[in-house]
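Researcher: Here's my situation. A collaborator sent me these components and asked whether they could plausibly form a single complex. I don't have experimental data yet, so a predicted model of the whole assembly would be a useful starting point for our discussion.
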Amino acid sequence: MHAHTNKSASYRGHLTVNVASPDQTRQDQTRTGSQPAAGPQARDAVLLGIDHVGKRFGFGEGQITALDDARFEISDNEFFTLLGPSGCGKTTLLRIIAGFEHPTEGRVLLDGRDIGHEPPFKRPVNTMFQSYALFPHLNVRKNIAYGLEMLRWKPADIKRRVDEVLELVQMPAFADRRTTQMSGGQQQRIALARALAPRPRVLLLDEPLSALDLKLRKAMQSELKRLQRETSLTFVMVTHDQEEALALSDRIAVMNKGKVLQVGTPEEIYARPKTCFVADFIGEANLIPAGLVGLADGHTISIRTEHISVRSRPATTRRSVEAIVTALTFLGADTLIEARCAGDVPIKARVRGAVSGLAVGDRADFAWDHSSEWLLSE
Amino acid sequence: MNARLTTILLRSPVLVTMVLFMLAPMALAVVYSFMTNGAYGGVRMPFTALAYRQLLFQEDFDGNLVFSTGYLAILWRSVLLAALTVVASLAIGLPLAWYMACSSPAKRARLLLLITLPFWINTLIRTYCWVLILRDEGLLNGGLRYFGLAGGHFLYNDFAILLGMIYTYLPFMVLPIYAVLERVDGDVIEASHDLYADRWSTFRRIVWPLAMPGAIAGSLLVFAPALGSFLAPDLLGGGRRLMIGSLIQLQFTSSRNWPFGAALASVVSVAILAVLFVVVRRSFNKVPAR
């Protein structure tokens, strides 16, 4: 695996420089073929185009940029995730796709048609709300039928479709129940069924798993993946949970401060982050100034914690830094070793099993293979 | 202390309040209505149903009883006026409550204060202000004339009474509806739009059903006092068109016919309770949608 910088980077070390371009990214995808979720499905047809979309609130000095020049394309049949910390603009972007907000710049293209300024009730896009937003005065069946009634489906078709989606979310016995008497997990399935029922072109999921407890969350993750496969719909999910994003998505857009920083498959984003933020946000990465290991200054290298080994003697064949251990945390399967190297730069290593012969305050050598480091320019 | 006694003791404040302030006065009114009229007001024995006879029949010159619709017409007119007040305040109150529920929390607090502000001023004074506005030389006519428009007689008609009633009872409609709508999750409205419902459909299918419990409570709160009100009919209607409230009030003051006043009051109470009974039963059957 080779390192990779931005176009602007002028690094001339012994690392191979790879200039990123969208085309190349796509080639990488096909070459590596490491998309377990992609399967045999074609991923060529562009369904949703986010074309230089920006959203600004307010005027003049008090203006806030919630979203700045977002652009990417989502293919038909894709599980796409907008990932970022709170306030990064991911929810604003989702609301723009849904039609609850209108972009101040750019276009939202659905099947090539600009829908950016259409009201939500004219878009073949449905949302599963974070709060579920079920209609409290309607029972399960009427909740799910609502969209179909608005689309003026025939009553017989509505009944058939409601039964079908209830089957799909494994809640067929709940048709005549009141939604207010149901648990969070059950309500979520109904909300999902309601959004799926009208067969939207795009299904939007706003932090779908955040309100569930850990066990239910794991179950619902595989459930969502299954549903996406079975319905062959395009899912666009918003989340701040990188694990969730990695587990579910075909592709991820990492966002911060209103900007889309990187779009790529989970593997790409994990192994080849473009910026320090992405490296840090996805999994645990060590960000070490390149100068510290004898490379050109001004750059940063990122190494995943699990790629670092810790030993008492310096290893000559591999890249290494000396550091003083500040904490040892036993995590069951792994032990997390935290340390500080020259210039007070923190470094963390995650090693298998328990660690013996190492204590806080010890001087140790943190080493890794050249192949597991990744050069960042920002 | 055993559980049964605890239950009774815990319930007693509610029971005492209800008996003392609600049941006892009503029972007293019913008892008075079956007694004989005292010469200088008040009531005396023996028990009689004369007051109720007076409600439906009149004695002609020969002493025969003739069925008379005079008092029933007044009752009917009052019910109609109260119903109109309910409809009008619902038409104004629902959008107003919805607007308030959709506002930012700071704005909500301000609007809520504005709505309740009139409660701080005596109803008599507030109603009299409408006289100043509506009379021939009042603010409204002055304003119209200022803009070169023809004025008119706005005071002392049914319209003036209705206006005064709506003005007085509107807060009783707005507040319960607002209380219900305020708790509605805004996402529910967005979900409706998301599921292909335009604004009108969303109002009809989501907002209105969710506002219903508040609208029912508001309607009762407006209807009951509107039916018995006498300030607006007297001041703004000029007392020429007698309403049931004024009629009852007259029996206890100038007419000095307490049993008849009590009988009228009892009939109104029964009418209101009947409406209440029907509405509450219907809404209880309706709200838990099955």
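Model: Some features of this prediction you could bring to your collaborator: Residues 285-376 of chain A form a domain with the OB fold (Dihydrolipoamide Acetyltransferase, E2P) fold (CATH 2.40.50.140). Residues 288 and 301 of chain A are 5 Å apart (CA to CA).
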